Amino acid sequence: MENLFLNLLLIDSILIVIAVMMQPSKQQDALSALSGGAGDLFGKQKARGFEAFMQKVTVVLGILFFVFALALVYLSSH
Length: 78
Known about the structure:
Blueprint: H1 2-22, H2 30-35, H3 50-77
Helix pairs in contact: 1-3
């Protein structure tokens, strides 16, 4: 059972890395990085389409990561 959760945890961690790398960049130029992006503070729009889908996928994979990690800790302590 521990091996199953360990394998699921490894697969989930790889999928998290892929999901994060697939998300579109929010930074548009180097100037916004230096100024802290203050111009984008009030121009924030809700994510739509692919960006919203990738955010949801990342959240679900993150939750699964913690569930698998806690299950693995529980199984290894007993």
